[in-house]
Each structure stands twice: as C-alpha cells, then as structure tokens.
Amino acid sequence: MSAAQTRRERRQGIGLAIPAMLVLAVFFVMPVVSLLLRSITEPEFGLQNYATLIATSTYAKVFWNTFMVASVVTVITIILGYPVAWMLSVLPGRWAAVVFAVILLSMWTNLLARTYAWMVLLQSTGVINRSLMALGIIDTPLPLINNLTGVTIGMVYIMLPFFILPLQATFRTIDPSTLQAASLCGAGRWQAFRRVLLPLSLTGVLSGGLIVFVMSLGYFVTPALLGGTSNMMLAEMIAQLVQSLLNWGLGGAAAFVLLVMTLALYAMQVRYFGAPGQEKS
Amino acid sequence: MYANIKTIGLAAGLAIGLSGMAHGETMVFTAWGGSTQDAEFQAWGAPLVEEEGVNIIQDGPTDYGKFQAMVEANKVTWDVVDVEFDFAYQAARDGLLEPLDFSVIDRDAIDPRFVTDYAVMSFPFSFVLGYNADLLGDTKPAGWADLFDLEAFPGKRTFYKWSSPGALEIALLADGVAPENLYPLDLDRAFAKLDTIKDQIVWWGGGAQSQQLIASGETPIGMFWDIRLWPLQASGLPVQIQWEQNLASADVLVIPKGAPNKDTAMKFIANAATPEGQKRFFDIITAEEVEGGVGGSGNVQTLPEGGANQVTMDLAWWGENRNIIADRWYAWQAQ
Fold first, then answer.
1. pLDDT for B318
2. pLDDT at residue number B233
3. Is A180 exposed, middle or buried (0-12, 13-18, 19+ CB in 10 A)?
4. Using one digit for the tens of pLDDT, what is the confidence trace for A106-122?
5. Which of A2, A236, A240, B222 has the highest CB neighbour count under 10 A?
6. Residue B227 in contact with residue B285, Cβ under 8 Å?
7. Is B2 a residue whose pLDDT tops 90?
8. Cβ-defined contact of B1 to A110 (cutoff 8 Å)
C-alpha cells in the first residue's frame, strides 16, 4: 500500500466524522461559547462574576462540597467496585453473564426512579430505619437522608457500573497465569495482589476512578433529592442561578469553571494514562 | 433526562402544530406539568379547541431562565405561561411581558388581589399549616407559632424549599408580627426565627414530595399547599389543616413579550378568568386527584375569603425584592 493511498484513506475517514463534528459544534461548542460570553458581559463587561464566585462564602462552600462529595464517592466506588470487577473476570461465563445482567439492568433503570427508591429506603420512617428499630438495634432513626450520607449512598450506587465495566475490561487483558506464577514464586495472596494484580490493573482503576470523579462533579438529581440544602453541589447551584434567579452571568461563570476543571482532569488523564480506549503498556 | 423527553415531545408537537396551521390558529401553552397542567388545558384550552378549532400545543415545565432567554433573543415559542405571581411582577417590570387585552378578558370577574395589567390568576392557593393527627399528641397546633415550638411539637417539620413568598411570612407571623405590619418583611427577624428550627427542617421541593412526607409521617407537621392536602384527606388519611392565618397567593397566566399568537393567547386567558372556567378547573383536579371528587370543591369555594384570618401575601413587594431575597435565602440554606 503506497503512502499516498494511506493518506487518501485517512482523509476519507475525516470526511465521515464531519456530521458528528457539526452536531457537536452547533449543540455543544456554540452554547458553551455563548454561556462563556454571558459570564464576562453580564451585567457588564469584566470578570466580576468570577470575582463574586471566589469571594462569596456560599459559592466557595458549594465548590468545596462538590469536590468533597466527588472524592468520597470515587474512593468508595473504587473500594466496592474493584472486587466485583475482578470477580466478573474470573467467574465462569454463565455466572459472569448473570452478574453483568444485574449491573446493566440497574444502569438501564430510570435514574429518577432509582433515586426515589433510595428516598423510600433511607428516610426516618423508611424500610431500613423501621427494620433496625423493630429489631431493637437502634432506638431513634439513623439520619440517612437529607445529608452527606444519603448523597454518598445514592451516588456510589449509580456510579458503580461506570467503574466496574471499564476496570473489568482491563482485567481481561491480564493473564491469570501471572498470579499463578506469583504464587509459584512463593507470594502469599496479599503479596500477589499488591505486587502483581494491583500494579497491572492500576491504569484501569485510575481511568475508571477519573470517569466516576468527573461524572460526580456535574451530578444533579441525586444530590438534589437525597442531600440536604447544606450539601448543595455545583450543578444544582447553576440550575438555581439560571432558572430561578435569572443570573446567567454568574451561572455561566460557575458552569465554565466546572468545565475547565473537568477538562483539566481529562488532560491529566491523557497526559499520564493515554487517551481512553488506547491502552498504554 | 426529563428535559430531553420534553424536548422530543415539543418537537413532535411542533411538527403536528405546523401541519395543523392551515386549519386554524395555533398556540403553545406552558405550565408546570402533571395533573395540574392537564386540568388547566382541559378547563380553558379544550373549549377553544372544540369551538374554534384552535390547535393548542402543550410544553413545560415552566422555566424562568428559558422564558427570559426566548424573550431577549426575540424567539418566543410560548404564548401562555403559568408562572408564580411574584415572578410575574418582576417580569412585567423587566419588560418581559405583553400587556393583557381586557376587552377580551373580563377583569371584573377576577379576584382583584390576583390580577394586574400583565397577569391573571390561573388558580388561587394558600400555604397552610398541615399535620398528621395520628402522629401528634393530644395537643393540636393552633397556629404558625406551634410550627416553631420544638417542645410541644418535637421532631422534623417540612417547609417549601425554594425562595418564594411563604416561609418568611410564616416565621414573622409565628414571631408575633401582626399581619398588617408584615411588609416590608423584616428579613433579619424572619431568618433568626427560622434559625431556631433550622436543623429540624426537611425541605420539600414539589407537591408530590410534600404529600409523601406528611402521609408517611416523616414530617408530621409543616407548611403545605392547601390543594395538595385535600386529596390526602379525601383518601382517608388523618391529615388536618389549621387554616389560622393561611397565606393566600395565586399562580398567574402571562404572555411573554413577542409571543407569536397573542390574540389566541388572550382568548385562552379569558377562559381562565371566568367563574365557569375556574369551576371547571377545580372540578377536574378534584375529580382526578380524589376518587369520587369529594373534598376539594367545598374548600375552593371558601378560598377567596379563606376565613376571616386569611393573610394575603404582598406579591408586588415580592416582585421588587425577589432576587435580593433569593440570594439571601439560598445562602442561608447552604450554611
């Protein structure tokens, strides 16, 4: 195959991408740019909206909440999801298919329905508290909802599939005989995990964790329904600024800061672990 | 996710609307969705559809950001919008609304508290003190002060989450301010009063959630929309209303500036402004939400007066101060 031919084929490939690029330009890039413009032109030209964001303690607290919740959710998701992903890759095919089906089914159920289900479970008169009180384990209901606990439980549950599925793909590329080799060389279970499995799967953990973290940063429904007003996160604040207060300038500034942070994290991932889908060995 | 479904619905609706344009007038009606919007459409829109062949497309939910954006971009797709009254005052001041044509709409038929040059009541409602009688002791709450009495009524109570006329008035009335001295609201005093129970407040963001909270007993006491409590009462739940100093307000219908089908929009609003239109609306919501249609209508008829102790909220004042209060409200909530 000549070099010219390869180049031509490459150009044809670009042609096929044009419709998608146009859709992105019209429905994503343009609105983002116009929102950015509003953030520096309303009420007047300048950076006053960004200054307000930094200077107002309420907004600073919302930024802190957002990062804190996203971090807690990511760490817990990794701890809970890792063994599940490993189990998926070592289970015999039929059982793996069942576990897969359960994970996907939960992913495909309406988000709002799932979140309302958590409300019913977690509230003071909910299933969990009533059962614990009936069993005599607690006297007064545990505060499981309208606080950080509620947000964390609800979000970890929603994020788990987004971590398990990519990590499971990483596990598939690991040859199980490396673990056998480790134990033949005298490594105990813990050592085999720490020195063989974990390093080999670290890329998957970090990129899965990043997906969870970035998604959590912009989450709306779950924090709004399971959290209290003092756990407000950025997405809810932006909606409030724009929809209820008609403050497009400030809302735009907050949205833009969120976008920049997300892009920075993405750039970090590309820099250290390669672009998604492109395994770095 | 919700919004996407709505958008698809709107696109489909627009397609149908365009194809129907050859036959008669078309207009878009936007409200908050659910059974209330259905009832509004049935009561005031359906007659236009049947008698004049008007094509009415429904959109929603109401979104003030979108409202403002379409007026400013001069690309208005909504003709009649159901909004909160305080927003209507603010929007009129900011030039976002069309003045209404009172040669089409009968102004005299409307409760004068709930009509302006730019807005006509869609339905009245009151914030009331509601409680679950099974879960409170023998003492029953007698007024707003009891909502703040953690000794007589310990435990969680529920309040409306969004910055809106209601909770601040309740706090001041509970603190002993006379209704005639409520406005301008003493915000410092109101927030200080709310602070005394803040950690016991569970916020409700929508009507369905408020019903769930009182019915399950999660919050046996709180502030509610009266129209959301009747269906619970009618279904046999031990929910009681303390009408003392109930706070009257209304949702209103407005026409965004530059709406493409103003004339048809005026007719729609004219239908809503008649006593017959109001009766049709309340008959539908009570029939829909309450099996057998008991309960509701009786309450509705007393509502405009609402008893001697009803307090009418000053929504014009709210229109002027809406944003300042909202900033403070959300900052206070987030603390």
1. 96
2. 87
3. exposed
4. 888 888 889 989 988 99
5. B222
6. yes
7. no
8. yes
Task: List CB contacts of B71: < 8 A, sequence separation 6 or more.
Answer: B96, B256, B257, B258
- Residues of B within an 8 Å Cβ radius of A: 1-2, 63-66, 68-69, 156, 161-163, 202-203, 205, 216-218, 323, 326-327, 330-331, 333-335
Q: What's the rounded mean pLDDT across residues A53-75?
A: 92
Report pLDDT for A231. Answer: 86
Closest partner residue to B202 (CB to CB) among A146, A230, A242 is A146
B167 neighbors B144 (Cβ within 8 angstroms): no
Taking the domain A59-273, which CATH number applies?
Answer: 1.10.3720.10
Cβ-based contacts of B330 with chain A (< 8 Å): 58, 232, 240
Contact yes or no for B1 and A125 at CB 8 A: no
Q: Considering the entire predicted model, what is its pTM?
A: 0.81
Among A132-136, A273-277, B235-239, B278-282, the least confident range: A273-277
Q: Is the peptide bond before B179 cis (omega within 30 degrees of 0)?
A: no
Nearest to B334 among A229, A243, A247 (CB): A229
Cβ atoms within 10 A of the Cβ of B146, count? 20
Intervals of CATH 1.10.3720.10 along chain A: 59-273
In whole angstroms, give the CA distance from residue A159 to residue A77.
7
Query: Rg of chain B's alpha carbons, rounded to an integer?
Result: 20
